[in-house]
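Figure 6 in text form: structure in, sequence out.
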């Protein structure tokens, strides 16, 4: 997704999956899934860690991240789009499959 001249991904840089409960770091423009950054900070053994995005030197702590409602809305819209594609795609495949799966007489198969 392009915002201004910056490209923002809807995927968490930690999990590489669509964001879950997106939070934005106050020290840099990066967005993470809440539970992923929480676990990373917890396992870091300190209050804060270096941003997990390659090349970013910003510090990240639970105190420096805030809910990103705008990104949450974008992720929700993307999930809805993906679900709609699955539904439409699944119907198309099923319809084609129903028509093309008629092979005439059925053979009996013995299972031993």
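Output sequence:
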């Amino acid at each position: 997704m392009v915002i201004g001249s910056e490209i923002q991904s809807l995927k968490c840089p930690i999990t590489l999956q669509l964001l879950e409960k997106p939070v934005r770091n106050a020290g840099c423009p990066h967005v993470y899934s809440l539970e992923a950054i929480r676990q990373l900070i917890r396992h870091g053994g300190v209050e804060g860690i270096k941003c997990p995005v390659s090349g970013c030197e910003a510090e990240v702590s639970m105190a420096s991240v805030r809910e990103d409602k705008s990104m949450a809305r974008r992720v929700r819209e993307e999930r809805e789009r993906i679900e709609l594609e699955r539904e439409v795609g699944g119907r198309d495949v099923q319809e084609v499959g129903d028509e093309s799966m008629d092979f005439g007489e059925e053979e009996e198969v013995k299972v031993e």
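Caption detail: Residues 83 and 89 are 10 Å apart (CA to CA).
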